[in-house]
């Protein structure tokens, strides 16, 4: 249950109510908000005088629920770069899987800027399945991304692998990405709740939609309203693709949550030949953005080489993306 408390309420009463309802308390836009377990369906007798509004919920998808906020949350990546709300914008994020060198990330950033794309992606801390593969450049990579941001006037999204470097990523990134393998890390989620920077959470490849959105609830209930969901494929019985992109799940998220939704066809497919078609299908669903991996020379990429598009392939895809978005009344940004 979500409770908006009356503005004139004092701190002692707020604390008493928080304890009484075993609630999480935070302040957003000068409103004192309590979130109780969803099993609570009504306000206790005598407490009505403290509550301005209340919402009883069916599950612990609460702050992210469209029952609470019917419209999509509006998130400002920059003052002139908005997703969600009534913007009808579809944000394109692209760049290599990893920062590998200054030359490589400079070539990538220059390419991204040349197309008018505003957000560059690249990982610095890589949660690899094998300990014998490239693990990322770490802080050195973050500093290179910072350099590209200044040089090419780009926004940066990069991934947190674990809680040991979450403060560094929050400091350097414009959008903090919580990867599929880190979705359950409450240390990361709670740290990201203390910043107002946009937080993009990727769905774990073995996670239900309920679990996925409840990860977002950790950030929302800590006071950060700027959460984006990213569907990147789930593990099924199929072996011919890397994962299975759950567009049915995306339809559910669009209907029942108030969070912007971005799709990652690169990780879902796992092979570059299918990324373009999947991307167009994603955009046709009217989602809020796509996250696509591109590399100057995918054949020599140090991570995820098979799924990254080269720059010519991405340029061709980008032209068709504008056509699909326009056909459903959306705008590529």
Structure description:
By secondary structure, the protein is α/β, with parallel strands linked by helices. The chain has two domains: 2-55; 74-332, Aldolase class I (TIM Barrel), CATH 3.20.20. Helices cover 32% and strands 20% of the residues. The protein contains ten helices and 15 strands. The chain has an eight-stranded parallel barrel with strand order 7-8-9-10-11-12-13-14, surrounded by seven helices. The longest helix has 17 residues, at 311-327. The mean pLDDT is 96.
Write the layout of secondary structure elements.
Elements: E1 2-5, H1 11-20, E2 24-28, E3 31-35, E4 51-55, E5 74-78, E6 81-84, E7 89-95, H2 102-114, E8 119-121, H3 139-152, E9 155-160, H4 166-172, E10 175-178, H5 186-192, E11 199-202, H6 209-220, E12 227-231, H7 247-256, E13 261-263, H8 265-269, H9 275-284, E14 289-293, H10 311-327, E15 331-332
Helix pairs in contact: 2-3, 5-6, 9-10
